[in-house]
Specification:
Elements lengths: L1 H14 L6 E3 L5 H6 L19 H12 L9 E6 L2 E7 L9 E2 L4 H14 L25 H5 L2 H5 L15 H6 L5 H6 L15 H15 L3 H8 L1 H4 L19 E2 L3
Parallel strand pairs: 1-2
Antiparallel strand pairs: 2-3, 4-5
Helix pairs in contact: 4-9, 4-10
Length: 258
């Protein structure tokens, strides 16, 4: 168990490899939200003291991070309070002008792409059944009524009911990563262990299926679809995907976040 715990800690540590960490330090009322100078192109800056925060404690935190005594895998720290950016620090050679992988934050972009496809009429709704998106996949293994009832919504919310999970060596996700192709079929063939929609399980496999669903309905891979319909409106800077069908959902996008 101790050996597996170490692997889990390293896995969690990798999840901290985000370009930006935003710490919510106050529950703000709707009135305050309406008055806060929320950013358009840039955040409005303030100081911790002006926003009634303990500046000395924040300075101490930054010092500990730089020494590797706290959050040693952290690359950037942004703290927002009352709608103002009060602290912005970078570590391990990173800065505001350096692009960075998004890791599994990319999964949120996948959800946005599905929303765009629904708006375009390419996908009817999130209530479409998953298997209806794969009419030519052939025989699906471990088929039962639960798998037949699985809907797109449940992939987006990670409540598919399959046995797919991420993490340790030998997990379904570990096995999938060793495959050169056929990722969508691998996920479709997973065993059902519970009724869809009844249990949350962090599930990269469901996001991979979502990418295939997008490709099947739009005729475009996720990276190309995003480049045409999502990123231009957002005016993203410096996005650099790794070529490949599933690059977006597999956390290989690089962004400049500022």
């Amino acid at each position: 168990m101790r050996k597996e715990t170490g692997k889990v800690k390293r896995f969690i540590g990798a999840a901290l490899f985000f370009v930006v960490i935003i710490i919510a330090v106050q529950v703000v009322s709707f009135t305050t939200l309406g008055e806060a100078p929320w950013p358009t192109k840039e955040w409005t800056c303030s100081t911790p003291t002006q926003q009634k925060m303990d500046a000395d404690r924040l300075t101490k935190l930054v010092r500990l991070i730089r020494k590797g005594k706290e959050f040693p895998d952290l690359h950037s720290l942004l703290i927002v309070r009352n709608g103002y950016l009060v602290k912005e620090e970078y570590f391990a050679g990173y800065n505001a002008n350096k692009i960075h992988t998004l890791q599994s934050v990319s999964k949120s972009f996948m959800s946005a792409l599905i929303g765009i496809a629904i708006e375009q009429g390419k996908i009817k709704s999130v209530n479409e059944k998953v298997l209806d998106f794969f009419p030519n996949v052939g025989k699906v293994q471990n088929m039962d009524d639960r798998k037949a009832a699985m809907r797109l919504l449940l992939l987006l919310t990670m409540r598919s009911g399959t046995d797919y999970h991420d993490g340790y060596t030998g997990s379904p996700h570990d096995k999938l990563n060793k495959l050169d192709r056929g990722w969508d079929r691998f996920v479709l063939n997973r065993n059902m262990v519970r009724l869809p929609g009844t249990h949350f399980q962090y599930d990269s496999g469901g996001v991979i299926l979502t990418s295939s669903i997008l490709k099947n309905r739009t005729g475009m891979h996720a990276d190309a679809f995003a480049a045409r319909y999502l990123f231009p409106p957002l005016k993203e800077k410096g996005a650099r995907p790794r070529p490949g069908e599933l690059c977006l959902v597999m956390a290989l996008w690089h962004f400049l976040v500022c």
